[in-house]
Amino acid sequence: MSAIIQAIQLVRPRTSGSAISKEATRFFLVWFGLLSVILYGGGTLVMNLFSSEAFRSACYVGMGLCTVTSVASFFLTEWAIDQPNDIFFGVAISSIFVRIFGLVIAFGMCQFLFKIHPIGLVTGMFVSYFSYLVVEIIYIHKKSLTRGQ
């Protein structure tokens, strides 16, 4: 058993909790910004060449919806990470469901009220949601290192 503990201590970072927390926040902000530039900039270049105006505007709406929910999730996680485990996990799980249902309702409103191009909207939401999700998962993992988990 002591060999496992020694191996864990070798892998565990030696920096303080606040330094890890600041590093995790900086990681999220840098990668979120870079990813946004790539998604919106690269998307603009590709869509200007290959898509219609309706598809392009719908894709931007879908990407914008997911960008807003990712920013809200960041601020919620920043608050919840310092709470006890039961509150943190409750907030994390409930925010996933609220976020998904919010995006489904927004999709329905865009479809039925505003008659936005459906494939463009789904494409923008799909690409941006899962791209931001990867950054958020890594951020939460880095943030949880401050709690010793």
Entry summary:
By secondary structure, the protein is mostly helical. The chain is built from five helices and no strands.
Please give a handful of descriptors for the protein shown.
single chain, 149 residues, mainly alpha, 5 helices, globular
Task: Characterize the structure shown.
With 149 residues, the protein is mostly helical. Helix content is 85%, strand content 0%. It is built from 5 helices and no strands. The longest helix is centred in the first third of the chain and has 34 residues, at 17-50.
Q: Give me the count of strands.
A: 0
Main sheet summary: none
Please work out how many helical segments DSSP would assign. Answer: 5
Overall spatial form: globular
List unreliable stretches of 5+ residues.
none
- Percent range for helical residues? over 70%
Could you say which structural class the secondary elements and strand pairing correspond to? mainly alpha
Strand content: under 5%
Intertermini distance: 19 Å
Query: How confident overall, as mean pLDDT?
Result: 84
Using only C-alpha atoms, the radius of gyration works out to 19 Å
Overall structural domain count: 1
Element string (H = helix, E = strand): HHHHH
Topology:
Blueprint lengths: L1 H10 L5 H34 L2 H28 L4 H28 L5 H27 L5
Helix pairs in contact: 2-3, 2-5, 3-4, 3-5
